[in-house]
Design a protein that fits this description.
Layout (H helix, E strand, L loop, with lengths): L1 E5 L3 H13 L3 E5 L2 H10 L4 E5 L7 H10 L6 E5 L4 H9 L4 E4 L4 H15 L6 E3 L3 E4 L4 E4 L2 E3 L3 H12 L7 H8 L9 H13 L6 E3 L3 E3 L6
The structure holds calcium ion.
Length: 221
């Protein structure tokens, strides 16, 4: 899951990045409204954390332009303390949730998890199909009821595919969402991780669709 953090206060950005990465999210950061607008229009994110008080272009304008261009990713806005008008304007402009600064990181993480679930129509913090189960609060994985130890990268891959169970994700969609943008990776790296997970769990846990990408099967009804 890839998150864009658009915030100009470095200490908040650093705290957010560290906390979100500890939860195995891939985090991209931008520090002004123009960068935010560009990133939101040209890259894909599963969620955006958007400060309303951004330099160059304010957060509300950025949000309105994204929504006018049919960018529908969930957006959590950060507002200054007690500025109720900002919250109202933000929600009216297409924000999905808001937090007032200063906020507790635990609350922000809970809201992020809830927004991620809502965006895919899931009501539970547990992602599951017939064989695989992931607890997104504990970051734990089990296969056929048995706990499995996975690396953070393996977790990100499994959680992403299970989040979109039944839908094929292309190699580039996956790579964009599970690797840090600053880290260079060769095209074989994803295949290596998938091969390792198939050995660790079962060869059928991730299916390859030739020329299209990879899919984790949805639960049978
Ligand atoms: Ca600010």
């Amino acid at each position: 899951m890839r998150i864009l953090v658009a915030e100009d206060e470095r200490t908040i950005v650093n705290d957010l990045k560290r906390s979100l990465e500890a939860q195995h999210y891939v985090v991209s950061t931008v520090y002004d409204g123009e960068e935010a607008l560009f990133a939101g229009e040209h890259e894909s994110f599963d969620l955006v954390i958007l400060d309303l008080g951004l330099p160059k272009l304010d957060g509300l304008t950025v949000l309105r332009r994204w929504r006018a261009r049919h960018k529908r990713m969930p957006v959590l806005i950060l507002t200054a303390r007690d500025d109720w008008r900002d919250k109202v304007d933000g929600m009216d402009s297409g924000a999905d949730d808001y937090l007032t600064k200063p906020f507790r990181m635990e609350e922000l993480l809970a809201r992020v998890r809830a927004l991620m679930r809502r965006s895919t129509g899931q009501s539970s913090p547990i992602l599951a199909n017939d064989v695989l189960e992931i607890d997104t609060r504990q970051k734990s994985v089990s296969f056929r009821g048995q706990p499995v130890q996975v690396t953070p990268l393996e977790y990100r891959l499994l959680a992403l595919l299970l989040h979109h169970a039944g839908s094929v994700l292309s190699q580039s969609e996956i790579v964009e969402r599970i690797y840090d943008q600053e880290v260079e990776h060769d095209s074989n790296a994803l295949e290596v991780v998938i091969a390792r997970l198939r050995r660790k769990l079962h060869s059928s846990v991730i299916e390859t669709r030739r020329g299209q990408g990879y899919v984790v099967p949805a639960a049978r009804p």
